[in-house]
Amino acid sequence: MKKNLIVVFVFTTFLYSCESEPFVEDEIEEVEIVVDLIVGKWHLIETYVTEDLIPSGCERFSWEEFMEDNSLKSTIIGASSSVDPIYCPLYPEDGWTWESLGDELYKIKFLDEPGQIFTIYIEGDNLVFEHPDGVTKTIYEPWIY
Q1: If one looks up domain 40-142 in CATH, what number appears?
Q2: Which of 2, 35, 73, 126 is 20 to 30 Å from 89 by CA-CA measure?
Q3: Could you tell me which residues come within 8 angstroms of residue 100 by beta carbon, excluding any fewer than 6 positions away?
Q4: pLDDT digit string (tens) for 52-84?
Q5: How far apart are the first and last CA of the chain?
Q6: Backbone phi and psi for residue 122, each to the nearest 5 degrees, phi listed first
Q7: Which helix (H) or strand (E) element contains residue 14?
């Protein structure tokens, strides 16, 4: 009798463990991958200082690329000596990074330096940088070359 009771117990336990619900694909939770708005390659098109357009010469040659891994690269391609280095962003070395601080604020820094905080947002298709000096604004379009 005792042996029969153990067999019934083991059989009931086995049946109970097999009663789990089958896998249903509808129950898979979709995960939305969010890529920051600045990620991509951007071409400098305009620089303003206190609302005045500043022809720096960078517009034809400069691009910046914000990577998903928070690194930053930029260059000035084939620029002539007439390019004004004050208004031409240039981050050619490895070690430049960007960080989203929220509310359109981004920190851009080199290695362990403290960096600077920019206000960056999308206006139309363009990326707008408001510089920490409060008077300089640079505008980029998506790189399509």
Answers
A1: 2.40.128.270
A2: 35
A3: 36, 38, 106
A4: 998 766 666 677 889 999 998 877 655 444 555
A5: 85
A6: -95, 135
A7: helix 2-17
